[in-house]
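Researcher: Structure prediction, please.
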Amino acid sequence: MSLAALPIYVRLDGRAVILAGEGEAADAKRRLLERAGAVIVDPSQQAALAIVALDDPEAMATELRGRGILVNTVDRPDLCDFMLPAIVDRDPVLVAIGTGGASAGLAAAVRQKLETMLPATLGRTARELYAARPAIRARWPDMASRRRAIGAALDMLDGDVVARVLDGAAAETSLLRFTLASSDPDDLTLRQARALGGADRVYHRADVPAAILDRARADAARIRCDCAPDSQEPGLSLYLEMAK
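Model: Predicted structure follows.
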């Protein structure tokens, strides 16, 4: 399954961004840009990004695109090169929720749900993990082991996460095998979903649907094969097959 768009985070502090339009929608975008530290300029100036909040945006969007500027057009996803997501802010942790322009209301509803789930201390945890990177790398030199140790420590988002990482048990080499009863990813068990989210490699038979494989980490290797591998590589590997 292909991505409708690639989510990225753009640093705008001190950088020019065009804002075209007036009124409530433009004011909301202005506040967001100012919060990100952008320098707001008019359409006659040069910038890498532009936001168009006009009743009739086609001509402006076309002109800006012709100048090589990426454009977001308010309430017109068909005229957008990039989308502005709903945001959960736990500085420096940012969670962005987008629907590809399908429904801003849905994105807002998901944001509100996440606001209740993510602790206010999440940003502090991120800063502590960053400060402890040398010690964590020394404790877990192997990247796969390090990822698993951090993942295990973050099963709980509160408390002394760094201590749990440094004191954690060794991230062992392992191979998990799952026979899936359904092709619907929503039918995955909690154990299966967690394993997919943490696996370094996913071996799978040809009949395992892409919708299931998409639940694995984006950087996890996907390896099509007819049987489980004989040897185990460092980290967590999965072998998936469908029930017959």
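Model: The longest strand covers residues 174-180.
Researcher: Thanks, that helps.
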